[in-house]
Amino acid sequence: MSALSIQPRQRIILAVGMVPPKACSNLVMGVLRGAMIELVDRALVETGVTPDFRDRPVDRGDWLIVLIHPTDRIPKPSLLTELVPRLRELVAERNVGQYYPLRLRVVIHPGDVTCDELGWFGEDINIATELLTAPALEDRLQRTSDPLVLVVSDQIHRSVIRHGYDGIDERAFIPLPRVEVAGEECKGWVHVPGES
Predict the structure, then answer these.
(1) Span between the terminal Cα atoms of the chain, in Å
(2) For 59-107, what is each residue's pLDDT tens digit?
(3) Cross-strand bridge partners of residue 179
(4) CB under 8 Å, gap of 24 or more: what pairs does 30-36 form?
(5) Which of 120, 168, 148 is CA-nearest to residue 13?
(6) For labeling, which of 78, 113, 132, 182 is most exposed (least CB within 10 Å)?
(7) Report field, pTM of the whole predicted structure over 0.85
């Protein structure tokens, strides 16, 4: 395939990763992974992000990338005010009485992605995954028992958060140290929904 035949497609990138408990078996990891996949899909469907508005998830083992098609039916603020809270509720409900609770880190970032016969790739996917695995996010996760921690990219912060749309509190988002992707610095903003 030549580089000229690869064309970018706009997507909202939702990256969701498990926070694995310390010293657990592959069996436990498999159970948690299955719960993550099921609950992410359920939250998406329940908030209107049905399969016809997204591509097949990219499975990276203990994390997923969901590519949501841009559409007026799914405005970016609704991902923050409906999808993320619903996912948090579902995870909290699932964790009741569980010895190994499921904890998630979630990143939302808009951008261009590309696809070839092997799957999805591109700089914006790299940005989302770097934010998902940023050491500063790991530090923040250690300081909360909440089942979900959210990071938004600077693009989401500029286009949605700072405008104070209904249900979004700009003060709840704290800047993370910058991460580097392809020689460029990228900024993320972290929020723990259960602490606001």
Answers:
(1) 48
(2) 887 899 999 999 999 999 999 999 999 999 999 999 999 999 999 999 9
(3) 186
(4) 31/100, 32/100, 32/102, 33/61, 33/62, 35/94, 35/102, 36/64, 36/102, 36/104
(5) 120
(6) 182
(7) yes
Token code pair at residue 180: 């580097």
Contact, 97 vs 105, CB < 8 A?
A: no
Contact 91, 147 (CB under 8 A): yes
Among the four given CATH numbers 3.30.70.1230, 1.25.10.10, 3.40.50.150, 3.40.430.10, the one describing domain 3-195: 3.30.70.1230
Answer whether residue 170 shows pLDDT above 50. yes
Distance, in Å, from the CA atom of 163 to the CA atom of 119, rounded to the nearest integer, reads: 35
Residues 6+ apart with CB under 8 A from 4: none
Nearest CA to 130 among 71, 76, 184?
184
Spatial distance between the Cα atoms of 163 and 171, rounded to a whole number of angstroms: 11
Tokens of 32: 């948690």
Between CA 13 and CA 134 the distance in angstroms is: 16
Domain boundaries defined on the chain: 3-195
As a whole number of Å, the CA-based R_g of the chain is: 16
